Protein: UPF0259 membrane protein GCM10011328_13440
Amino acid sequence: MPITASALYRDSFNFMRNQLTSILLLALLTAFITVILNQLLIPGGDQLSLLSATSDDLSGTTDMSLQELIQNMSPEQQMVLLKVSGAATFSALVGNVLLVGGMLTLIQMVSNGMTTSALRSIGASAPILPRLLGLMLICTLLVQLGLTLFIVPGVLIAVAVSMAPVISSTEKMGVFKSIKISSKLAFSNARLLFPAIMFWLAAKMLVLLAVSHLTILPIMAASVVLSTLSNLISALLLIYLFRLYSKLRA
Structure:
């Protein structure tokens, strides 16, 4: 019997509905970790004021590219910008690794008839977290490089590596072998993966646009809301990818 996208979507939404409490807590917990870690790593107010001064000085120049804006900064301002970007990237990576590890462990435990929770899933995923950290770091760099060159290469790379975390988690495979197998499976099942990845990217953009209008919330609260909603979207994609890989492996 052929695998259909409609059946995978239906199974994914049913799983999400049945495990909504655990998934919501997992998404909220990893969002808090991401935001708090970012606040701990981000430079202090004195250093951030340097970037604010740069923004005020260049507010009248609307025809500058991002590269030109950075080149017009002083070395101290460029260093502060690097620290801010590094803090955001590292905290997001840690939060995503915990989310992916926790979600994949939760899915496997529930599929095996075991009861679990958000904290128990994260704890049980501890053995695979170092491998997932290396895997997701490489995948993130590849996707970002592709998006920097052009949108299409970034999307293609995202599709190619999309099943690597699932394969690495379920089969206990290494980073590069997981990526290799993921690429083969992804492009041989492109009709099932491309729409899901495009939906994931579009949903993330819509969430970002929606939360940017929540000016009534404090910055940290808005960050937690944004990260939680983004995590829920990623959780649904992980369920879909896990279901797809399970059917392909059967």
About this structure: The radius of gyration is 20 Å.
